[in-house]
Specification:
Layout lengths: L25 H13 L6 E2 L2 H6 L6 E3 L4 E3 L12 H11 L14 H23 L3 H14 L16 H15 L3 H13 L1
Antiparallel strand pairs: 1-3, 2-3
Helix pairs in contact: 3-4, 4-5, 4-6, 5-6, 6-7
Length: 195
């Protein structure tokens, strides 16, 4: 059903690590029951890595763009990114809510949503670059940069949530360096320095 790819090393069982928890909530038990009953017939996806991590399953997820799909494979050299699917999703399906249109105001909640897209872009670009696919990494980095005006949402931007905006921008900057995109890296670095 497309859950695994040729060459994947499938594990015979998922080893769930709940050592950091002393208890499970009903929603945790319900999710584990869904996973057990599913038997890989349909994809199970998480919208953030924290949910899978809370269930001790983060090492069995693959980033497909904005979702983390549960797979019977331990994360390896691609950093848990489904490179081809994630690249296609970024290039063909990601939306930016008119962030590239000059003068559009984004409140804190909408900036957080754009940050989620920025982080996913950075993670995918980093994995592409590390896999030797630097041109594709540069393309998705520029897709974000072309669709999010720095006048509306600068790379360097103070937030009241632990400065998470700048943290994600640093990860974006790291992806620029790995992809050998020095002009974009300088743009991001200058914005971060200014903030």
């Amino acid at each position: 059903n497309g859950t695994i790819h040729a060459g994947d090393k499938v594990v015979d069982s998922l080893h769930i690590d709940l050592s950091s928890k002393n208890y499970l909530f009903k929603n945790d038990l319900a999710m584990l029951a869904v996973i057990a009953a599913n038997q890989w017939k349909r994809p199970i996806c998480f919208s953030n890595p924290g949910t899978a991590q809370d269930l001790g399953l983060d090492k069995y997820t693959r980033l497909n763009g904005l979702t983390y799909q549960l797979v019977p494979i331990e994360n390896t050299n691609t950093g848990g990114v489904n490179l081809d699917v994630a690249y296609k999703n970024v290039m063909q399906h990601f939306g930016y809510g008119n962030a590239g249109k000059k003068g559009v105001y984004f409140d804190e909640e909408n900036r957080r949503r754009l940050n989620t897209i920025k982080l996913a872009t950075a993670q995918i670009a980093r994995s592409l670059a590390q896999a030797g696919r630097k041109e594709e990494a540069r393309r998705i980095l520029h897709r974000f940069d072309d669709h999010v005006s720095e006048d509306n949402v600068p790379y360097g931007f103070t937030t009241n949530r632990g400065n998470i905006h700048n943290i994600f921008s640093v990860q974006f900057l790291e992806a620029c360096y790995l992809a050998d995109d020095w002009p974009l890296a300088n743009k991001v670095a200058n914005s971060l320095k200014k903030d």
